[in-house]
Amino acid sequence: NGLVKEIRKAREMSPNGIIGVNFLTAAVNNYVELVTAAVKEKVDLIISGAGLPKNLPELVKNSTTKIAPIVSSGKAAATISKIWDRNYNYLPDAIIVEGPEAGGHLGFHMEELLENKSQNLLDILKDVLEAIKPFEAKYNRKIPVIAAGGIFTGKDIADALHSGASGVQIATRFVATDECDAHINFKKAYVEAKKEDLRIIKSPVGLPGRAIYNTFVEKAEKGLHKIKKCYRCLSTCDPQTTPYCITDALIDSVTGDTENGLVFAGS
């Protein structure tokens, strides 16, 4: 399938690199099938967010694939660590802490984001580091915590590391590079965007998301997108009531139609 092709292509381009795949947990219908395929292809790392990946250790059993949940609070970090510890005697190989400044889907309430009431990344990071201490002590092992969402400069990286992060995750900053395989129009949408162009929008995934304002977002806010074909990809999506088809919207933008597609971006 498409996932296997992408993994093999990545492995070909980076034979000695670490290959990781990111999966939406609760939102996609074929989550188990996708994770199983990735493990069979011997990916080095599976990252999973958009819900807590409660049964992920079961899916990577007897493999060398490492697993890292994405959390947006100390409470979520403690919950997933407790579930994995109790049910599988397994600690996360790493935890990604994603703050409210990230692009794409966000693990916060819409009201928190619109009213700027969510905690900042470094405060959430501290909560997560505190929440996982009992599990690190039990297993006598440190869980690397990766800070994500709003990391743009060297200072941002230094601040995260000084606050206890083992590393950072950066996405938006690298979209406009030659190495990124997105269409040039997609890259230009990032480069030419102004601060006021960023919007928090509703997603069929059931989470709010941050995207660049364009014709597509304008129509979505007015409910003008009709679903022509349903791919049955999301468990959270009802084609009768969804504001738009996220599969079509993301493919349209990354292949060049950035006015009529969804362009997720960090703050």
Describe the 3D structure.
The structure is a single chain. The chain is an alpha/beta fold. The chain has helices at 2-13, 31-40, 56-59, 74-88, 110-114, 121-131, 133-139, 154-162, 184-192, 215-221, 246-254, and strands at residues 20-24, 45-49, 66-71, 95-98, 104-105, 145-148, 167-169, 198-202, 208-212. The strands form two sheets. The chain has a six-stranded parallel β-sheet with strand order 1-2-3-4-6-7. Strands 5-9-8 form a three-stranded antiparallel β-sheet. α3 links the parallel β2 (45-49) and β3. α4 packs parallel to α6 (121-131). It starts with a helix and ends in a 13-residue tail after the last helix. The mean pLDDT is 89.
Briefly summarize what is shown.
The protein has 267 residues and is α/β, with parallel strands linked by helices. It contains 11 helices and 9 strands.
Oligomer: single chain
Please bin the fraction of helical residues.
Answer: 25-40%
Secondary structure tally: strands = 9
Secondary structure tally, helices? 11
Q: Give the SSE string.
A: HEHEHEHEEHHHEHEHEEHH
Low-confidence parts:
none
- Biggest beta sheet attributes: 6 strands, parallel
